[in-house]
Amino acid sequence: MNSIVAAKALLRKQLRQERDLIPFAVRQSKSVSVARRLFDLPVLMGAKTVMGFISFASEVDTSLILERLLSHGKLVLVPRIDGARLYPVIYDASLELERSEYGTMEPVEKRTVPAELIDVVLVPGLGFDRRGARIGYGKGFYDKFLQTLPASTVTIGIGFDEQIKDSLPEEDHDQRVEVVVSDSEAIFTKR
Q: Which range has the worst mean pLDDT, 38-47, 66-75, 90-99?
């Protein structure tokens, strides 16, 4: 195992523990702040098709974000993992969900949308830095998926202030996000 891979594995554990230590009520309050800051972004409000994600464990609660996107008439997508790939599938609040092998919830119905139609992708992660680097969960699903997007698609990482670090280790295949939104700031990065 090379030193970057080892450093990222250790960071994943530390970042998850830090996030898990945020009390539930505080996470809920911070999630509202993340949503508010996110909806202040003109790029999100101008988007027609937005890919979000259904949060799990101690992640930013995305239920408010998904509901608000739907109420604004956006076509909302969420990820569905099939084999080694992540696919954007249509989401609405009435869909039946099932738990994936990774613990995340996914729509049972698999109505996919081509990546080139997505205007904005909200990207989960355990940690983000001020350059847009991110530490995900280690399977590489998002790194592979983000590579398939057209240059016009805006990628936005969302997390709590505790998840924002000055610098994170990166490998050649890691994909950065263009904006990082936390409960107290929006950081505009360069790809």
A: 90-99
Q: Domain 3-188's class?
A: alpha beta
Distance CA 94, CA 185 (A): 32
- Single out the residue of 168, 177, 125, 100 nearest to residue 146, CA to CA: 177
At residue 129, the 3 state secondary structure works out as strand
The pTM of this model reads: 0.95
- The span from the CA of 58 to the CA of 152, in Å, is 31
Per-residue pLDDT tens over the stretch 26-39: 999 999 999 999 99
Contacts of 31 (CB under 8 A, 6+ apart): 60, 61, 62, 64, 183
Cα–Cα distance, 121 to 108 (Å, whole number): 21
Those residues with Cβ within 8 angstroms of residue 52's Cβ, 6 or more apart along the chain or in another chain: 62, 65, 66, 69, 76, 77, 78, 91, 122
State how far the Cα of 73 lies from the Cα of 49, in Å rounded to an integer.
9
Nearest-angstrom CA–CA distance, 65 and 172:
31
Residue with tokens 């450093």: 7
Q: Output phi, psi for 108, to 5 deg.
A: -65, -45
